[in-house]
Amino acid sequence: SYVALTCAFVLSGCASNGQEKTDDVTRWTMTHISDESHPWHETSEVFAELVEEKTDGEVVIDIYPNSQLGDEVDSINSIKYGATDVTITGETLEVWTPNAILMATPYAFEDQEHKQKIIEGEIGQEIEQDIIDDVGLTPLFYMDRSPRNLTSNIPISHPDDLNGFNIRVPNVPLFLDAWEEAGANPQVIGLDETFTGLQQGMIDGQENPNDLTESNGFYEVQEYVNLTEHVPSWIYVVVGNEQLEALPKDQREQVLEAAEEAENYAQDLMEEQAEEVDERLKEAGVTFNEVDQNAFREAMLPAIQDNLEEEPYELYLQIIEE
Ligand code: 2Q2
């Protein structure tokens, strides 16, 4: 009967929010959009190892890279529905919580030190709290990101070169507006469909940190990395609030300890890898093209004023005045 079936389901330890509990081991499903060669995957594996070690095997994380279980928005929704538990996400959360856009507002940070100060200061904490309150996801740790650069098959040195240029952008409304203001024709395509779009000539270019340009193989179908460095950003590894709450207090603390160590690991890895990525892209035949960054900054500025809601815009003004 239904009652017997329900009792069996609960007794078998299948928690209501999808995370599996078999003989007292909690298994979390983690998804992300980069492939196994990318620092995000390496950091995810280190985090999973640290969690298993610190919880004495009572919390295990199974990692699914390469958008295997869906794109970034699918991953966020599936955690909220309890089908999966952990993912890597950032400005895409703007759809649920406006302040997340501050993670990817064009030319907002003067340098690495300025960005780090914001991430680890009050504004960074506010963004993390908003993600918890508005999206139901808890940021466990952040990973710094290299700045996003525009890739293409013709050199793009100034916004004037963008006339008729079809550019792929992720599902971030501000990016659509910013590239439209700069003179390009932006369209939202999932990261996992971008290579095909470039290969078939549906799009002329895309923009990403060089590490994702490398790990997605975009250098095979793009000749130039144009050093726009238009978005210096960072990204969070997040877990569902319910999934974290479902753990006993000691395991929760052990997971947060593992997260802190994984954050330091990610920072070291990023600093170590950034130069190596650029060298490998040049060896693969990519031309690094200097651009007029101020011209791109000026061109994108109106999109920030038009696109940011009141609170994120106030915080943006605080960031650029720091
Ligand atoms: O180009 C991409 O799809 C990624 O760099 C995403 O922009 C990035 O992961 C953000 O969506 C984070 O929310």
Structural account:
- Helix content is 47%, strand content 20%.
- The protein is globular.
- It is built from twelve helices and twelve strands.
- The strands form two sheets. Strands 1, 2, 3, 4, 5 and 11 form a six-stranded mixed sheet that branches.
- It has helices at residues 2-11, 39-54, 72-81, 112-120, 122-135, 173-182, 191-199, 210-215, 241-245, 249-283, 293-307, 310-321, and strands spanning 20-22, 25-31, 59-64, 86-89, 137-144, 148-152, 166-169, 185-188, 205-209, 224-231, 234-240, 287-289.
- It is of the alpha/beta class.
- It binds L-galactonic acid.
- Its main location: other.
- Residues 1-15 form the signal peptide.
- Keywords: Coiled coil, Receptor, Signal, Transport.
- It is found in: Cell envelope.
H and E string: HEEHEHEHHEEEHEHEHEEHHEHH
The residue ranges in which pLDDT falls below 50 over 5 or more consecutive positions are 5-18
The unique ligands bound to this protein are: L-galactonic acid
Average pLDDT reading:
93
Q: How many β-strand runs?
A: 12
Distance between the termini: 64 Å
Features:
binds L-galactonic acid; alpha/beta; 47% helix; single chain; 322 residues
How do the strands and helices of this protein lay out in sequence?
Layout: H1 2-11, E1 20-22, E2 25-31, H2 39-54, E3 59-64, H3 72-81, E4 86-89, H4 112-120, H5 122-135, E5 137-144, E6 148-152, E7 166-169, H6 173-182, E8 185-188, H7 191-199, E9 205-209, H8 210-215, E10 224-231, E11 234-240, H9 241-245, H10 249-283, E12 287-289, H11 293-307, H12 310-321
Parallel strand pairs: 2-3, 2-4, 7-8, 7-9, 10-12
Antiparallel strand pairs: 1-2, 4-11, 5-11, 6-9, 6-10
